[in-house]
Amino acid sequence: MRVPVTVLTGFLGAGKTTLLNRLLRTPDFAGAAVLVNEFGEIGIDHLLVERLTEEVALLEGGCLCCMVRGDLVRALEDLAARIAAGTPVRRVVIETTGLADPAPILQTLMTDRRVLRGFALDGVATLVDAVAGAATLDAQSEAMAQVAVADWLVLTKTDIAAPGVAAALTARLRALNPGAPLFEAASVPAAALLDAANISAGGRAVAVAAQPAPQAGRHDRSIESFTLTFDAPLPWQGVSAWLGMLALTRGESLLRVKGLLNIAGEDSPVVVHGVQHVFHPPAMLAAWPQGHDRKSRLVFVLRNLPREVVEQGLSAFIAATDEKTIMEVR
Ligand SMILES: Nc1nc2c(ncn2[C@@H]2O[C@H](COP(=O)(O)OP(=O)(O)OP(=O)(O)O)[C@@H](O)[C@H]2O)c(=O)[nH]1
């Protein structure tokens, strides 16, 4: 019996980790091992996948489509050894980085003999953000590729999208990939994302075969990713004001920001997410992940926006609110 593998893909911030956390709570995905592939110097997603499963591994292949294949094979071989030694794993879920064409991962899963010994690709769920999706499809070819290879399309954030926007996007997705059933993230039953072989394996094989082989260094040079780390607790006002403003004024360049923050006066970490023009409501985790150094980390993925602009603005806002706090205390 080979272990089925589900691939969750979708552009930066589409809602992959959110859906993954929901799926892991269902009986259909119980006993799943999770592999997370991140774009960025330091991933934090593996900290955000709730500890519903013991088996969470981070694939840190910075240059995703070029490096990830070796890492993926190694991670799956590792997992196969642990399964052979008695670890019960019923399914594997791979959360791909939002900034990559998933074809190399699928090629690996469908053709690598070492992988095929223990695992079988079940299906690819592609998440599309109802708010940012249309702009993303216009600007990023990776997003098109993600939609093209989907066995299932899942529309997220329909709850905050303007009326009519989701309907227009749905029509576009149907045209791009007519074979894939389309669901809304809020209501898709976990069982609907199983056994893709029953629906559209033919379509996927064609889409994957049509992809050019990945080459090192072909990534969009206008995109930059970096992580800022802060030792001292941060003032919430300063950080949130700056991130909110950045999303508002430079949303088209702010492909993604996410952070796990140590906020002054809070015992638990605060998680922040920005996706293009949307700065999502912050969430508080129940506690710091075990072994975490409690430093704040903010990961940015920017397009056509110099890193210095973000760093200087953030420092200025932090300094301004720190002073204000001090003045108020006096
Ligand atoms: N309102 C709303 N917010 C959502 C929905 N799905 C996800 N979000 C929010 O969108 C933000 C990004 O969600 P994630 O699940 O981290 O997105 P992701 O695709 O894993 O992000 P990357 O791994 O960085 O590509 C978070 O603040 C989520 O709470 C949705 O259906 N509705």
UniProtKB/TrEMBL annotation:
| Gene Ontology MF terms | ATP binding
- Boundaries of each CobW C-terminal domain copy? 223-318
Reactions catalysed according to its record: GTP + H2O = GDP + phosphate + H(+)
Presence of the UniProt keyword Kinase in the record: no
What InterPro entries does this protein map onto? CobW-likC_sf, CobW-like_C, CobW/HypB/UreG_nucleotide-bd, P-loop_NTPase, Zinc-reg_GTPase_activator
Q: What is this protein called?
A: ATP-binding protein
Q: Which family does it belong to?
A: Belongs to the SIMIBI class G3E GTPase family. ZNG1 subfamily.
> What is this protein for, i.e. what is its function?
Zinc chaperone that directly transfers zinc cofactor to target proteins, thereby activating them. Zinc is transferred from the CXCC motif in the GTPase domain to the zinc binding site in target proteins in a process requiring GTP hydrolysis.
Give the classification, highest ranks: Bacteria, Pseudomonadati, Pseudomonadota, Alphaproteobacteria, Acetobacterales
Q: Which UniProt keywords apply?
A: ATP-binding, Chaperone, Hydrolase, Nucleotide-binding
